[in-house]
Amino acid sequence: MEPVAVVYHEGISGYDFGPGHPFRSDRFPKFMSLLETHGFLNDPRVSVLEPEPAGDELLELIHPESYIREVENRSGHYIPLSGDTPLSPSIVEAARLIVGGSVLAGELVATGAAEIGFGVGGGLHHAGRRYGGGFCVFNDVAVCAQSLIERHGLERVLILDSDVHAGNGTMDIFYEDSRILFVSVHQNPLTIYPGTGFIEQIGEGKGAGFTVNVPLPPGAGDRCMALFLEEVFKPLACEFKPQAIIRNGGTDPHFMDGLGSLILTFQGLWTIGKAASQAAEEAGCGVVDLCCSGYNPATVAEGWLSLLTGAMGEENPSVELAPPPISSEAVLKETERIIGDVKRHLREYWEFR
Length: 353
Ligand SMILES: [Zn+2]
Description:
There is one protein chain. An eight-stranded parallel β-sheet has the order 2-1-3-8-7-4-5-6, sandwiched between helices. Strand 4, helix 6 (168-173) and strand 5 form a beta-alpha-beta unit. It has a single domain, classed as Histone deacetylase domain (Arginase, Chain A), CATH 3.40.800. The chain starts with a strand and ends in an 8-residue tail after the last helix. It contains ten helices and eight strands. It is an alpha/beta fold. Bound molecules: zinc ion.
């Protein structure tokens, strides 16, 4: 096992959208107590660090000042950012802490202080430079990546977004940037929020070929994910030679999650964490791992732990609460077709060896 830094601040509990909203903040302390239950907090190889809230200077690596002011102004008057994303002063304060946490996780990995920097609450990938929504106020994934480039001199950062929803905000932000290879595997956006993240969206200008969208059909499970990891993610990581890998996305691809229609198991989530850390090991770099999503309170923390233990190469202690369904042959065939299509769209940029 590699040295792991878990970046956590109790203050992120302010990132709570209220009763009836699928994003409640009890997920954060629940995850920390699950780590404790399984002995990870007493493990000498695991440290827990507290981040500082991100100031404007850090946010401005990605977000223009006008957007930050708009968020602050709205939050003071409790005016939502979008239909699904309420704002309040405590939500914005917690959002700044989450960004600070993801940046710290990145810093620890970039300086070699940790092999795995696990940012609890990170992965707010639906926020673009000038917009928020989809429960995301500031894009901590993008701020983390940009900070690795601008403040630590990295030239190649790979982002693996394995959330059930496509990472539209992160995609938009880096669409013309060849320093960030953005790979998003998600449920077909014709069938789920945010309605974008299609195979044809491969980046533009200098960034052409550096955005990779792999939209899986509803009903895709562990075997489909394995196919993506083997045929798309691993070869790309091998060719790109990242100096850091940021993996984001929580439990929402799990079969018991209410917001998505993918049917991954905890073991399937584990394989994603494992693939990210294996690719990092081959490239000689570390992994920043960011988890916030998951909309079944009974599985969210266990799913994050699956991703983390996968990255650590530790046995996964999470136990399914129901027998997992299995992808149909038709869904597997469709996934093979999609992966072939992804490679065809990118063949002038990558060899996929
Ligand atoms: Zn999601």
